[in-house]
Amino acid sequence: MTQAYTDISGVRHNERALVLNPVLKSERAEDDNDAALQEIVDLARAIDLAVVCGATLFLTKTVPATLLGSGQVEEFANLVKHQNIVIVVVNHTLTPVQQRNLERAFNCKVIDRVGIILEIFGARAKTSEGKLQVELAALNYQKSRLVRSWTHLERQRGGFGFMGGPGETQLETDRRIITDRIARLKKELEKVRRTRGLSREARHRAEHPTVALVGYTNAGKSTLFNRLTGAEVLVKDMLFATLDPTMRGMKLPNGREVIVSDTVGFISDLPTHLIEAFRATLEEVLQADVILHVRDISHPDAKGQRDAVMDVLADLGIAVDDERIIEVLNKIDLLPSAQEIPYVASSGGFGHGARGGKVGISALTGEGVPDLLDLIEKRVSSRAKTYDIKLPLSDGAALSWLHAHGKIVKRRDSKTHATLKVDLEKADYGRFQSKFKKKS
User: What pTM does this model have?
Assistant: First the structure.
């Protein structure tokens, strides 16, 4: 797979970096500034940049040519020179013109928020699907930023020397290579989408409900995923530790088996083309029976992170009051006092609870996880209907199965048969008919 993401930014690891957090006074509350600066510093460190210093800049308005004011540009140009800065990371989306002008002023590489997220995605993607998604997002990002040769994209794949006539400029050649590559990637990802759709249909036929984990990056989704399923997904205290989707089976307390899906972490100001690139993966969330919104409730900007996740879900067509959503308030072990947990779980200060419920847990210690499992069980069982079933009294296996997977509302016995009213999910009723064909 082409490593386009590395060539896009020219970022090399362990280089001295300056991090800038521009803030329009009309856009962000002052309380969020420290958290926003820390997040972009963490993003830079996630690709092993050596952050020398960081600063929040307050802007009355943005300058079309450079984003920053001329005085700020001059100030940080001097800092870059005297501190031997090799790369400047800007926590904002830069236009190609702004990026180019800042690079000239600073005399070093400049990368914006989107570029650094793509760098991280490129470094973390391991599966073929993940790499396809990252490359598509990277190419869409770079398409308007052609400042150097892109023919290496094809040379790395064996080469297409016949492309381009003698009168074609290098820029035109590069742009056409990117456009053609984007078209091919979209076709490959469409195959992935169809394959995922077939897999979902197979799971539905097997009558296994699905539980999807979503949340802000580093909220603890993978830790919870491992806790619930016994899997060994990579867990690290860093942004976007997990990029590739993972699915595992899990049994609920009542014995019901469900499929749990871990997804890529969300982040504020996630570009539209990134969401589009990962749509094949995120469709698992759209089709899920239960959505666990895992939140780091100990984070200083917990509400802002929640809002960012809900914005992405809204882009996917999932409303904030979707009854499938359970808010999982993770990392309660990091709160100052256990007495705050009930307050956090009910406080509107952290956002109103979803219709699906809300529960405080620690995925690390396991505290609160039994309550979460009970809540998942209730959500999965909430679609139950009452069915009339008649069984021979001698058929202990079928009776035992109904007790394990449903709720016996009423039972009337004759000499030879039991007539039952049983609350069952439609899926479980289908499983019962399949397993005990002559008994339904």
Answer: 0.69
Fold topology of 208-381: Rossmann fold (3.40.50)
pLDDT higher than 60, residue 323: yes
Instruction: Read off the tokens for 414.
Output: 């004759």
Q: Which homologous superfamily does the CATH classification assign to the domain defined by 4-120?
A: GTPase HflX, N-terminal domain (3.40.50.11060)
What proportion of the chain, given as a percentage, has pLDDT over 70? 74
| pLDDT at 229 (0 to 100) | 87
